[in-house]
Backbone:
């Protein structure tokens, strides 16, 4: 796994709070991907950092940031009340996209959103809310169904990656896709479970994700 470089740490203004993140943009980047973690994850997520490192090899910048403050994470670890607050997460994701437009090194780059678990719903809602700012979306094992009424409003090309053995989430993603009007695809990683822990599964996720963003971030 690629270890985040502390020199790339940034403070991101989101409403009345400040969130911590890692912004890493390779030379001659063709776009930037903002990661929306879910289910209590943070910018230190091993899986998302592995995917992010692979994306950077494909000349895609990455922003991995915490959707919750340190205090909120402490509460959430006990109550789990924030990780399912999709409206809060989506608004903070929108704020992060806006923050990127104010950064000299990122302002000119097209933006993609990569969401995991509940973060995928937040990514889809944010993409629907700011369609001119989001060029593509990828969901990894995401709860796309939780985006609800925002699904038909998503304009960005969307890839829903689901493990073949994650049968309930696969069903929910297919149902969500039926409600979408944008270009969308469901990619099934054979025999993979929800966390893509099987040998080679996360590598397939990373390749699918890179190829989607390289195609659509223009």
Residues:
């Amino acid at each position: 796994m690629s270890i985040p470089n502390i020199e790339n740490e940034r403070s991101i203004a989101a409403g009345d709070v400040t969130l911590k993140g890692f912004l890493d943009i390779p030379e001659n980047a063709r776009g930037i991907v903002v990661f929306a973690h879910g289910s209590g994850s943070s910018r230190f997520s091993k899986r998302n950092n592995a995917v992010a490192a692979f994306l950077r090899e494909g000349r895609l910048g990455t922003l991995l940031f915490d959707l919750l403050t340190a205090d909120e994470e402490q509460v959430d670890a006990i109550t789990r009340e924030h990780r399912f607050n999709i409206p809060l997460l989506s608004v903070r994701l929108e704020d992060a996209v806006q923050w990127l437009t104010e950064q000299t090194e990122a302002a000119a780059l097209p933006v993609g959103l990569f969401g995991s678990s509940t973060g995928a719903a937040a990514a889809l809602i944010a993409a629907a809310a700011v369609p001119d700012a989001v060029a593509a979306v990828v969901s990894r094992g995401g709860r796309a169904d939780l985006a609800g009424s925002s699904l038909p409003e998503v304009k960005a090309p969307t890839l829903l990656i689901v493990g073949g053995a994650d049968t309930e989430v696969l069903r929910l993603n297919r149902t969500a896709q039926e409600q979408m009007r944008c270009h969308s695809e469901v990619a099934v990683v054979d025999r993979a479970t929800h966390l893509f822990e099987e040998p080679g599964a996360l590598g397939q996720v990373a390749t699918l994700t890179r190829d989607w963003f390289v195609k659509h971030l223009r």
Observations:
- The mean pLDDT is 94.
